Amino acid sequence: MIDSNLRDRAGRHLTLRPVDDDNWRAVADVVPRDDQRAWVYPMAARYLLLSMRGGGWTSLAVYADENVVGHVMWGVDDDGSRWIGGMVVDAAEQGRGVGAATVTTLATWLAAQPGCLAVRLSYHPDNTVAAALYPRLGFAPTGLVEDGELVAELTRTP
What we know:
Layout: E1 2-7, E2 13-18, H1 24-28, H2 45-53, E3 57-64, E4 67-76, E5 82-89, H3 98-111, E6 119-123, H4 128-136, E7 139-146, E8 149-154
Parallel strand pairs: 5-6
Antiparallel strand pairs: 1-2, 2-3, 3-4, 4-5, 6-8, 7-8
């Protein structure tokens, strides 16, 4: 379990936990808002398959207290940088600070790992919520574009 002792706006304790036999179905059922589907897969199940079959990514369940409310992945690039990807917060849970707490928790944990040279993430250029959120959490645009997404790098610990 990865725990930064953060809470969402509803006061729920947020943690990141491995996807396992007990929670994978709840993670697979996480669905974004309809207006986010241009840049987020319709269901977290796609990300679970990528992490199981694609290699290089580790899926985590996002918990608010004891309920699965989202999904996030992390991976290690060839240059030693850590990446955050595949974040989906369930539509019913958005606007409560779950996404910010998830990124902060995972970025802090990744930055503390031995050999970590940088923590990066990417987001679709049309995702204005991400574009506003990530700089508040310490990420700055790098000017790079990968797979049609803007790359940002952690410049300070959240």
